[in-house]
Amino acid sequence: MTIGIFTAMEKEARSFLREGTYTQIKDGDFDVYGFLLGAHNAVLCCPPSVGEIAAAAACQLLIGKYNADVIFNFGIVGALTEQTSLLSAVIVGSVVHYDMDVTQIDEHTAVGRYGCFDDVAVDCDRDLICAALKIANLPVVRCASADKFVSAADQKTALRQNFGAEICDMESAGILFTCKFNNIPCLMIKSISDSLFGGSGEYRQNAVKAAEGFFNLASAICANL
Question: Which residues contact 131 (CB under 8 A, 6 or more apart)?
Fold first, then answer.
């Protein structure tokens, strides 16, 4: 099995790259790394930019060119509730792309709704979630995703109230929807870099630390696939 791994930033990839031998190439503007993850071949891709479009392009590259059988995403995110604690890890169970809005031309379609999906919230792969839960008993949450860094507590609270999400980021919709369009299972595990009231300052302080455990989680999950 080939494991495709997507990280939006180099700091999210560091735990993978300091653990052993890997090959590195430049594929266009993407940094691509190949290594073994247990008994599996792994290909990790970092895009030239954060955001949904770069995430979708990176995942399509992993699927179409590097023949990834599954996509794992490890990333840092913001918390939308006080119960989602700083530096804790969570599994993404579903994603809402809250920037999607066609209400001006179709008032019957809810904000965040894609016509090709059954609901505003799009579910992640249940089998991979179950495999991850056998390794780490982590909360399974909903992620609100769009191309904006959300810092203010009132904006975070609104995302929670409007979409039932516990975390927010800038890549999960691009990752999950690309996998859905290609019929490739996807697992996303996130670590909290900024709390409900922490904002951008807390993110800068904790971003690197929040990503430290990603390699160990990935290795443990892959050992049971």
Answer: 187, 221, 224, 225
